[in-house]
TrEMBL record:
Residues covered by the DTW domain: 1-188
Chain's gene name: Dtwd2
Pfam families documented for this protein: DTW (PF03942)
Homology family: Belongs to the TDD superfamily. DTWD2 family.
Organism of derivation: Sylvietta virens
Name of the protein: tRNA-uridine aminocarboxypropyltransferase
Catalytic reaction(s) noted: a uridine in tRNA + S-adenosyl-L-methionine = a 3-[(3S)-3-amino-3-carboxypropyl]uridine in tRNA + S-methyl-5'-thioadenosine + H(+)
Molecular functions per Gene Ontology: tRNA-uridine aminocarboxypropyltransferase activity
GO annotation (BP), single: tRNA processing
Length: 226
């Protein structure tokens, strides 16, 4: 896990990489590389190298990423990105019998949105989303809403659905739970979502002057899906 011995997470990783047929392509915003408590390294440590490929960047075109372009054009490839055009992953998994490839964008919500909409390749795969049925266990980082998940959590839920094996989710979440526990023991504080803070009058930062950002906060408070 490349962490100091005192907070080593290796005992919480699977002894052997999980055997999965689904291959993940993690499209990582460059800013995520510098984050100390990022979750993608833990995800990669749980899976075989050939089943978890990480590409770092903001712009992806066919000339620079021919392999990715081929993947995006494959009819069995899925991209996990919520929206009006996305299909619930459970519905897709029921109809899928062959090994699939899934693309997941790793970054803040604004970074992920920028990558998704400014790269035409990512509109080629079938767009899927997860049902908002669980709350994030990544409690040491603030999420926009109560149902927003970290990249590792999204991958854990998605793989358990695609592989039809609930134990996969439990195995991948184990090191994340240990990471949060270690950080809380060493002075970190539990971070409630921005949605929770706004609804309970606990948001202590200045309200944005940008009308678009202010409108998004109003939607969070009023329980409107954004």
């Amino acid at each position: 896990c490349s962490r100091p011995q005192k907070v080593c997470l290796c005992p919480f990783l699977p002894v052997h990489p999980l055997k999965v047929s689904t291959c993940l392509y993690i499209i990582q915003h460059p800013a995520e590389e510098s984050r100390v408590l990022r979750t993608v390294p833990l995800l990669a440590a749980c899976l075989p190298p050939e089943k978890c490929k990480i590409l770092v960047g903001r712009r992806f075109n066919e000339d620079r990423y021919p392999e990715l372009a081929t993947v995006c054009r494959n009819p069995s490839t899925l991209i996990l990105y919520p929206g009006a055009e996305a299909t619930d992953l459970e519905e897709v998994a029921v109809m899928s019998s062959s090994p699939s490839v899934m693309i997941i964008i790793d970054g803040t919500w604004s970074q992920a949105k920028d990558i998704f909409y400014k790269n035409s390749l990512f509109r080629l795969p079938k767009q899927v989303q997860l049902k908002p049925s669980i709350s994030s266990q990544y409690v040491i980082r603030t999420q926009p809403t109560n149902t927003c998940l970290s990249t590792l959590e999204c991958a854990a839920v998605a793989l358990s659905i695609m592989e039809k094996n609930n134990s996969i989710q439990e195995t991948i979440l184990h090191p994340l739970q240990a990471l949060c526990s270690f950080q809380l023991q060493h002075g970190a504080q539990i971070h409630h979502s921005k949605e929770h803070l706004l609804k309970n009058g606990l948001y202590d930062k200045p309200m944005p002057k940008n009308k678009r950002k202010l409108r998004r906060m109003e939607l969070l408070v009023n329980n409107v899906k954004i």
